[in-house]
Design goal:
Elements lengths: L1 H12 L14 E5 L14 H20 L10 E4 L14 E5 L10 E6 L2 E7 L7 H11 L22 H10 L13
Parallel strand pairs: 1-2, 1-3, 3-5
Antiparallel strand pairs: 4-5
C-alpha cells in the first residue's frame, strides 16, 4: 500500500507522467491561470501589451511544432483566459498555463506537470521563462515526448534548440493521426 501511494505521489508531480489525450485533428485548448499575468501591471508598455506579448510567446512556441504542417490541415491551438470559455465536449484535455515561483525543480525556468490528480500544466517559475523555446520544449512533453540525450532536439535538456523535423517524426510516431496531416519541409 505504501509503495502504491508513493507511485501516485511521484506520478502527480513528475513531468514524466503520461501525457493527456491529445488528438491532433481536434483543437487543443490552453487555459491561462490568473498567475500567468502576474507582473503585467508593472510592464513598461502597459498591461494589455504584456498580455499580448506573453500570448505571442506561447503561440510562437506552439507554432514551432505546427508550422511543419500544411496550413489547411495543421493542428489548432487556442488560448483562453478561463475554463468557462472551453467548448462543451472538447476532444482534447485543456492545458493550463501558470506561473509559480519555486514550483519546478531547482535551476529550471519551466516544467510540465500531469498526473492522476492534476490537470496538465505548463508552469513557469517567473515571467522571464515564457519564451518560445521553453514553451516548445514543455509543449513537447504535453504531446508525449520525453527528454532525449541527443543534441539538436527541442527535447534535449540544454541548450534548447527549436523544433526539428526529427522532433516532428518522433511526435508522429506517438500520434498516428499525423499520417492524415500533411507534413511539409521547412526551409
Amino acid at each position: 500500500m505504501r509503495s502504491f501511494l508513493i507511485a501516485i505521489a511521484l506520478a502527480t508531480v513528475c513531468s514524466c507522467a503520461r501525457p493527456p489525450h491529445i488528438d491532433l485533428r481536434h483543437p487543443i485548448y490552453m487555459v491561462t491561470d490568473q498567475s500567468f499575468w502576474s507582473g503585467c501591471n508593472k510592464y513598461p508598455a502597459g498591461y494589455k501589451a504584456c498580455r499580448a506579448f506573453r500570448i505571442k510567446q506561447v503561440n510562437d512556441g506552439i507554432n514551432q511544432w505546427f508550422d511543419y504542417f500544411d496550413r489547411a490541415t495543421r493542428p489548432r491551438v487556442t488560448i483562453v483566459s478561463s475554463e468557462k470559455e472551453l467548448p462543451f465536449g472538447a476532444v482534447n484535455e485543456a492545458i493550463r498555463l501558470r506561473i509559480e515561483a519555486g514550483f519546478c525543480d531547482k535551476g529550471k525556468a519551466a516544467c510540465y506537470v500531469y498526473g492522476p490528480f492534476s490537470l496538465p500544466e505548463i508552469v513557469f517559475v517567473d515571467p522571464s521563462g515564457i519564451t518560445p523555446i521553453l514553451v516548445a520544449h514543455e509543449f513537447g512533453h504535453a504531446l508525449g515526448l520525453d527528454h532525449v540525450s541527443i543534441t539538436g532536439s527541442v527535447m534535449f535538456f540544454q541548450p534548447y534548440v527549436p523544433v526539428t523535423l526529427s522532433d516532428i517524426k518522433t511526435m508522429c510516431k506517438l500520434h498516428r493521426e499525423c499520417q492524415m496531416l500533411k507534413v511539409k519541409r521547412r526551409k
